[in-house]
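Quick note —
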Amino acid sequence: MYASPAVARSDELSLPVAPTSGGETVTQSAPVDLQPRQSEGWSRRTRTLLGIQILGTGSYVPDNIVTNEDLQARHGFDPQWIEQRTGILARRHLPPELATSDMCIAAAQRAMDRAGVSPESIDLVVVGTFTPDYHCPTTANLVQTALGIDAPAFDLHAACSGFLYALSTGAQFVGTGNSRRALVIGGDCNSRIVNQKDQKIAPLFGDGAGAVILGKGDAHQGLMCYQLGSDGAGGSLLDRPSGGTKSPLTAEDLAAGRHFLQMDGRNVFKWAVRAVVESIDRVLHQSGMRVQDVDLFVLHQANIRIINNVAEQLGIPEEKLWNNVQRYGNTSAGSVPIALDEAIQAGRVSRGSTVLMCGFGAGLTWGTGLFQW
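Predicted structure written out below.
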């Protein structure tokens, strides 16, 4: 009988509140009970989709490096606090003349070049992003036309889980024969949606995008097991309160900063560790795999303390984790595909490798996929 893994106590996972420039602390909301539950739905949502392969990968991060020391000079942030609590040393910010689509286009072009495929051979474009250039047209529309691709194109909005949602969606089209070559992208320009003077949030996020080309594979390749999940009860823990149809943007909202990303860091931290541990454990259990059977773990690069807590609870050795959070921060939907591309270029992934990818974030959402190369 399946047994859920033990989760850490809340006091073990508490993330100290960031001090403000005046030295006072910020009061956060009361704890929210969002502990994932291994319900029947977890089994129904945990599936296999083989016969698919990743033909090529690509990624893009802006040239502009913003270090912790830069944030100290600009806003008085404490570099040591940022490093100790997040593991982040630097992040990339996109220049004002560029947007999310530009990063996605650059990442996609690199993936196409490495896969050796032309725009004419791609018949589907899926972009995971929650920072689109516009409300409409979609970012995928802009990518599709810029690359000269004649194909349906659409965005998926699942925040930091966006790439896993987009990957599993593109895989459905390829696996059922409704697409021969699918371009799947995850990318976000987070520097445009956070208040750069907010010491609790701004240092965490950076900009970037990653892409993969999916095609038909043999019977052993593809998603050995994958799972997507959602818990909208925690939506208010990580949201942008103003700017949608529920609360159209007003001058008062702009003045109050309600159009910026808001986050209850303490509760998001605790939820993320629990959700990721249980989702990975379920995917491994259902596929008949153990941690030692997986060649590489590519987790969403949100915070090194989340990654370390997950690794400790599941017994994942450090050498099996690919981390770049120290250089890029949290790039949301771009996080997993950027890390995956780096790992592949470093020779850590080859034919026959098993790679476990996991994204988690606003919604609240999560997605885990065990991929056989």
